[in-house]
Design brief:
With 222 residues, the chain is α/β, with parallel strands linked by helices. The protein has helices spanning 17-30, 45-55, 64-88, 99-109, 114-125, 140-154, 171-187, 201-221; strands at residues 5-10, 35-39, 92-96, 132-137, 192-196. It has a single domain, classed as P-loop containing nucleotide triphosphate hydrolases (Rossmann fold), CATH 3.40.50.300. Helix content is 57%, strand content 12%.
Length: 222
């Protein structure tokens, strides 16, 4: 392929993004595509340092606007030094979260104005968006239980290193977050693929892989 494809995965805590990202990566590589897997905040050494401030339990006590600015500082570096060069080389980039998460968490969750978000997004990355965004939707109570169970099963880090700063916020925040994601998806139907994350992992994988492969096929014929 001459043109890369940028895919993002979104969803609240415990939606199952990690499993689906890895499954899609394997399928695309088996089909002969070069896949770059990355994440936000993070993806570059510089952006990973900002990630520590945002997602670790003892990363800091930031208000919504400060979080927004930190996310976009990391995102600017990530986009310009990793994502855009990879796409220019014809690679498929799969990103665990992107600007839709910032929109949902900081605006719908923390009350930052949508106007401020849009202006900063335009200034910093000129409205750069994924080609496809998969939103894995799960009820808040189920998602938080899943996330806690995974963290309890794999906990080997010190408290300072645990990446659960957002997960520890109350359920009302996560309820606003879920509705925010669904609203963003409704406003961007051409880009979003909303998936019921209560389905089996196999059923979810089929939907995701079919969508990604069909998009690649259409792109190759353009």
């Amino acid at each position: 392929m001459n043109k890369g494809l940028f895919i993002s995965f979104e969803g609240g805590e415990g939606a199952g993004k990690t499993t689906q990202i890895q499954t899609l990566k394997t399928r695309l590589e088996n089909e002969g595509h070069y896949v770059l897997l990355t994440r936000e905040p993070g993806g570059t050494p510089e952006a990973e340092k900002i990630r520590d401030l945002l997602v670790k339990r003892e990363g800091g006590n930031w208000d919504g606007m400060t979080e927004l600015l930190l996310f976009y500082a990391a995102r600017r570096h990530h986009v310009e030094t990793l994502i855009k060069p990879a796409l220019a080389e014809g690679k498929i980039v799969i990103c665990d979260r992107f600007s839709d998460s910032t929109h949902a968490y900081q605006c719908y969750g923390h009350g930052v104005s949508h106007d401020a978000f849009e202006k900063i997004d335009a200034l910093v990355i000129d409205g750069f968006k994924p080609d496809i965004t998969f939103l894995l939707d799960v009820p808040v109570d189920i998602g938080l239980k899943r996330s806690k169970r995974v963290n309890d099963d794999t906990q080997v880090l010190s408290e300072a290193e645990i990446e659960d700063r957002f997960e520890r916020l109350d359920s009302s925040f996560h309820g606003k977050l879920r509705q925010g994601f669904l609203t963003i998806a409704k406003d961007n139907p051409a880009r979003f693929c909303v998936i019921d994350a209560l389905q089996t992992p196999e059923a979810i994988s089929t939907i995701i892989q079919d969508k990604a492969l069909n998009t690649l096929k259409v792109g190759a014929n353009v």
